Amino acid sequence: MSEMLEKARKYEEEQGKQIKAEDRPAFHVSPYVGWMNDPNGFSYYQGEYHLFYQYYPYDTHWNSMHWGHVVSKDLLHWEFLPAALAPDEEYDKVGCFSGSAIELDDGRQLLMYTAVDHETLEDGSKRDIQTQAVAVGDGRDYVKYEKNPVLTEKNLPEGASKVDFRDPKIWKGKDGNFYCVIGSRPADGSGQILLYRSENGFDWEFVSILAENKKRFGKMWECPDFFELDGKHILLTSPQDMLPEGLEYHNGNGTLCIIGEMDKDTYTLKEQFAQSVDYGIDFYAMQTVKAPDGRRIMIGWMQNWDTLAHRDNDSKWFAQMSLPRELSVKNGRLYQTPIKELDALRKNRVEYNDVVIDNDTITLDRVEGRTIDMELVIRPEDKENMYKKFGLRFAKNEKFYTELSFRPDESVLKIDRKFSGTERALVHQRRCLVNGDANELKLRVILDRFSAEIFINDGEQVMSVVIFTEQEAKGISFFADGAAKIDVVKYDLI
Ligand code: FRU
């Protein structure tokens, strides 16, 4: 093991154990200590889910990238393992950027990642160059391959940049070969997704340009993932520099899902539909795993480069992952639902039916908390007389709250954390155009201390935000402008 990795492992163990469990999210992944960004290597290996993450243990700000590592049997209780990779080789000395993991035919685990190095230009200035490298291990300790890097500028199609060539996502094809998709920047400065193939995970060949951005959805496409789901081919990617279209793509670093069909002769994706993956403030760089039971499960970084909100200067960790979400395709759209494992955490069920809120603000006995799972159905009291606005305030006390509000006439759901006490957050609101019937809005709200995830109409759309409101702010209230009628089912999760 390199000195650099040994140092990181020692440091995280000493520092990580000083962070109290109650000062972290209860069931969302947070870094051992320090900074975390993208989920990497989300995989199932030897009976456990493995999740790696972009990691800098020594500070709560981005710096030279390591890979942190956690494992779990149920995707909710995570155990820290020692850091898996450090930028300790000549070819990755700037950082071990994002990538993925898979089990090799011989039972070892392969990590494939972007190795970032410097190149000195004629004028003496330096720029990063990106190649792909691999490491193999036993689920805990990894050895970088002696012939790294395994994909370099030589493997790029004409015109593609060696500066932006990153984030390999690997899978095993039905033909027994390994495949990976990688984000790339073509000559037009836009983004494209490259497809590569390998028989053994070490020797790779270029197959095709799977998908091209052509400057439609932002510029460089980061962190691609590609898989079959419910008879469709799905490309997930996180484009930089997006422009909003209506209420889609409101984060400059956006999330994009393209649903289509892959042409098996040309290995190109024929697009049928495109949408945001998440409509909230804090979500980026999602990656999926195929669970042993066949479910496609996605996890994302519950932060975003455009909206980064640090908690406070004393916190020893920064950022968390989203709740793992099961994906499906319905009515041509991507649906996300909280993984079913969450049901096992539910306790203290409280239920209310047909509660009428008529130009009023109410609270409901035992409906409160910061680690909860709450299902709501909101209807007009009288169908002929639609309410104007319905609202929910949570993480609430005299001083703070976060508000979710729905205007049925516009079918717009808004999240607003302006009064959440989240310091230095520059972005407070996001609005989502809800596709379903405004006469019956279904929400599932999952809170875990520092975050809220809102699943709309059985997961047709999702909004994710982080909130750093003091934990004593546990209250929940409901209000309506006009007369609304609601059903509430609420559980505690710890
Ligand atoms: C996305 C990203 C990736 C890159 C990593 C570096 O958030 O920019 O493209 O590999 O973060 O930490």
From TrEMBL:
It comes from the Bacteria. One of its GO terms (molecular function) is hydrolase activity. It catalyses: Hydrolysis of terminal non-reducing beta-D-fructofuranoside residues in beta-D-fructofuranosides. Its main location: cytoplasm. It is found in: Cytoplasm. InterPro entries: ConA-like_dom_sf, GH32_Enzymes, Glyco_hydro_32, Glyco_hydro_32_AS, Glyco_hydro_32_C, Glyco_hydro_32_N, Glyco_hydro_beta-prop_sf, Suc6P_hydrolase. Residues 341-487 form the Glycosyl hydrolase family 32 C-terminal domain. Its EC number is 3.2.1.26. Keywords: Carbohydrate metabolism, Cytoplasm, Glycosidase, Hydrolase. The keyword Cytoplasm applies. Residues 28-338 form the Glycosyl hydrolase family 32 N-terminal domain. SUPFAM superfamilies: Arabinanase/levansucrase/invertase (SSF75005), Concanavalin A-like lectins/glucanases (SSF49899). Pathway: Glycan biosynthesis; sucrose metabolism. It is an enzyme of class 3 (hydrolase). The keyword Cytoplasm applies. Belongs to the glycosyl hydrolase 32 family. Enables the bacterium to metabolize sucrose as a sole carbon source. NCBIfam families: scrB_fam. This is Sucrose-6-phosphate hydrolase. It comes from Ruminococcus hominis.
